[in-house]
Amino acid sequence: MTDQRASPTIADHRSRQGARAGGRRLINQQGQAMGRKGLATRAKLVAACAALLAHHGLRDLKVADIAKEARTSPATFYLYFNDVTEAVLAAVGELSPATPAILALIDVDWGRSDPLPRAREVAAAYAAYWADHAALFHVRNLAADEGDERFRHAREKAVRPVLAILAAKSADAVKRGWVPAHIDAHAAAGTILAMLERVSAVIRTPAARHIEADAMIDAAAWLIACTVAPVRQAV
Hints:
Keywords: DNA-binding, Transcription, Transcription regulation. This protein is mostly helical.
């Protein structure tokens, strides 16, 4: 039986914001501003959608399934969303590619101490966060890679904070002579993020069973350290 408890990162998020989001009122499909009750109902639908994606593909997910999981009706679903894809986009929109704790791990002076332990913390924390929301990340990335502009935009918006910090740290590493001058900071940041996403996804698959998870995290940490810290310390 599916756990009906709403995820605090999704279901409770909108309710805690009250009736406003981003300085404006959220509007339902009938053009009505949502109050606390409406926001809570919408949040339950979003959480139900996220929970079901762990066992259903985007194309297999039905409005009736989401409504049942949220303990409401299809008619109520359509009060808040036009279709399943719109609900999935709402769930995806609640996520970022990194928590504030992960961003804080990256946003340090990487020259002060041995960078490998911190780089390993970054890689391990990212993999753990990905594991917590693997279904949503997988659906988002698959839809974006297939050319859905809505999901591509959602992915680009989500990765901006972590890309910005990684690029700044990479640029600093180049400036301080730790990394070759021809390395483009933004390209390095994008490469590290792509590597972290792929490692976090692959580490959970049967194909990776012949490789120890800790070994993959160690390898990812070494690559991070070589990009943002003194290479002599990372070797």
